[in-house]
């Protein structure tokens, strides 16, 4: 089980995390707007997250935090494609 | 539960001023992580350029100096010679390093100064509004080449990594990109290696990082990553152009 948190105030809605997510479970929030006027990224289906950290790696604004359970699900893709 | 990702101590908490999707933020993080992982945060001095990264001194959590346009290698040389135990890096864009600062770049390499340069190449002048840079690709539209850069009028793109790699004083010269998670991990390794080359006193090290400029390219951030892959990487091949024999 992994959890992904987006710092909504840092997020500029650039969609880079949306494009790299292998499970396609990140989207820009349609309703929420941060104080800079951007639609921040949100997770649509946290259950499917493998904790690959692609979103963390590509985020230009260090707005992503990935939390993994010890041991994880054995699907770590630190050296991912 | 364990935090799998942690915001590096090498960056301050300040919000980056860069446009949405600008990969400067990724490169800032990679440099900051490298400095932190090497345990040299307290003795690192960075030198900022003129250009979009002009405010980098507000983002890196180490000592920072702002240099005149293109003169970051000269300032870094002074710092390194006065404080030889320090770790000194310059962070420069293509307008700063490859246009007004070309002489500084060539001669800091020829002197073999033991500093590290992070060269952010996005093929355009960002801060001033999207004019042609020395690294602009042939056929690429900018505000000063509205019909695309033509070699007979505006010359050819400058391949800085290849150029500097011909100089004896250069110890480690490489080109990386930050368009995919895989390339970002490679870029991180290259930056770590460049700092290690400096710390071991082997000579000048330069990491050219292919970066995006969604705003001035007129593309969305995901489209800009694709443009980098399809247009820039063929013109600016990735790889090591010079590395110390026997490894680092």
Q: What is the secondary structure topology, with strand pairs?
A:
The complex is a heterodimer of chains A (81) and B (248).
Chain A: E1 2-6, H1 16-20, E2 26-28, E3 41-43, H2 54-58, E4 64-68
Antiparallel strand pairs in A: 1-4, 2-3
Chain B: E1 2-3, H1 24-37, E2 44-48, E3 63-66, H2 72-82, E4 87-93, H3 94-100, H4 102-110, E5 116-121, H5 151-154, H6 160-165, E6 170-177, H7 181-199, E7 204-210, H8 214-217, H9 221-235, E8 239-242
Parallel strand pairs in B: 2-3, 2-4, 4-5, 5-7, 6-7
Antiparallel strand pairs in B: 6-8
Helix pairs in contact in B: 1-7, 3-4
| Helix share, percent of chain B | 25-40%
- List the secondary-structure elements of chain B in sequence, H or E: EHEEHEHHEHHEHEHHE
CATH level-four homologous superfamily name of chain B:
Thiamin diphosphate (ThDP)-binding fold, Pyr/PP domains
Number of continuous helical runs of chain B: 9
Give the radius of gyration of chain A.
12 Å
- Can you give the mean pLDDT of chain B? 96
Can you tell me the overall shape of chain A?
Answer: globular
User: What's the CATH class label of chain B?
Assistant: Alpha Beta
Secondary structure tally, helices of chain A: 2
CATH T-level fold name of chain B: Rossmann fold
CATH architecture name of chain B: 3-Layer(aba) Sandwich
Main interface: chain pair and counts: A-B, 35 and 31 residues
Biggest sheet strand order of chain B reads 3-2-4-5-7-6-8
How many discrete structural domains of chain B? 1
> What is the CATH third-level topology name of chain A?
Alpha-Beta Plaits
Compute the separation of the termini of chain A in Å. 21 Å
Q: What is the helix/strand order of chain A? A: EHEEHE
Strand count, sense and barrel status of the largest sheet of chain A are: 2 strands, antiparallel
């Amino acid at each position: 089980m992994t959890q992904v948190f987006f710092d909504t105030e840092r997020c500029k809605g650039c969609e880079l995390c949306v494009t790299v997510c292998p499970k396609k479970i990140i989207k820009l929030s349609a309703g929420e707007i941060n104080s800079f006027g951007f639609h921040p990224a949100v997770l649509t289906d946290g259950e499917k997250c493998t904790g690959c950290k692609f979103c963390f790696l590509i985020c230009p604004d260090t707005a992503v935090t990935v939390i993994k359970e010890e041991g994880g699900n054995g699907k770590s893709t630190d050296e991912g494609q | 539960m364990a935090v799998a990702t942690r915001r590096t101590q090498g960056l301050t908490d300040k919000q980056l001023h860069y446009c949405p999707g600008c990969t400067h933020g990724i490169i800032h993080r990679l440099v900051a992580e490298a400095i932190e992982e090497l345990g040299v945060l307290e003795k690192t001095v960075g030198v900022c350029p003129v250009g979009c990264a002009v405010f980098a001194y507000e983002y890196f959590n180490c000592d920072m100096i702002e240099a005149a346009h293109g003169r970051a290698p000269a300032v870094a040389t002074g710092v390194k010679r006065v404080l030889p135990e320090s770790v000194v890096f310059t962070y420069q864009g293509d307008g700063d390093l490859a246009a007004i600062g070309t002489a500084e770049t060539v001669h800091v390499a020829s002197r073999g100064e033991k500093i590290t340069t992070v060269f952010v190449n996005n093929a355009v002048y960002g801060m001033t509004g999207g004019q042609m840079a020395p690294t602009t690709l042939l056929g690429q539209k900018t505000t000063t080449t509205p019909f695309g850069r033509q070699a007979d009028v505006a010359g050819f793109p400058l391949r800085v990594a290849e150029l500097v790699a011909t100089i004896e004083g250069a110890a480690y010269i490489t080109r990386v990109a930050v368009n995919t998670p895989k390339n970002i991990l490679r870029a991180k390794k290259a930056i770590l290696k460049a700092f290690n080359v400096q710390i071991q006193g082997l000579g000048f090290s330069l990491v050219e990082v292919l970066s995006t400029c969604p705003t001035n390219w007129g593309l969305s951030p995901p489209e800009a990553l694709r443009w980098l892959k399809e247009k820039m990487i063929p013109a600016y091949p990735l790889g090591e152009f010079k590395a110390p024999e026997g490894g680092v």
